[in-house]
Amino acid sequence: MKNLIIATSLTVLGSMSLLANAGSSFDMLDTDGNGAISLSESKALPKLMAQFKDLDTDGNGELSQSEYEKFSG
Fold this sequence. Notes:
Blueprint: H1 2-23, H2 26-29, E1 37-38, H3 39-42, H4 46-55, E2 62-63, H5 65-68
């Protein structure tokens, strides 16, 4: 019984981790599907919004996939 509880707990924790990563992925944040994350779209992830201006290295007001990859959230 103890092993079942441990296995179930590990499964739940693993699922939570996957959901957390999926929720912060580039595609999930790019809600309009234009291939970039706008400042408005970044509001879904406050840590990303806080770093937005630093990450937007070309200054076009959007984060490309390569700019987003430098996000440390």
